[in-house]
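# step 3/5: fold
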Amino acid sequence: MTPNPKRLLITLICALISIIAGGVAGILQYASEHDLISAFQYGGGAFVVTMTLTLMVAGALEWL
């Protein structure tokens, strides 16, 4: 089965948006608390939530 290039591109764009959002959340958490573990947790949580939401929206718009 050959992967669909459009589907792969949309998924990579969603992942990139999620990485940026997770990084920003982690940096903001670290700037306010100065706790590295907490910053990783907030960044990881923001990544998971953003990835889920972007994939759900892309699926709802029938892009995937």
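# step 4/5: annotate
Residues 5-33 form the longest helix (29 residues).
# step 5/5: archive (pending)
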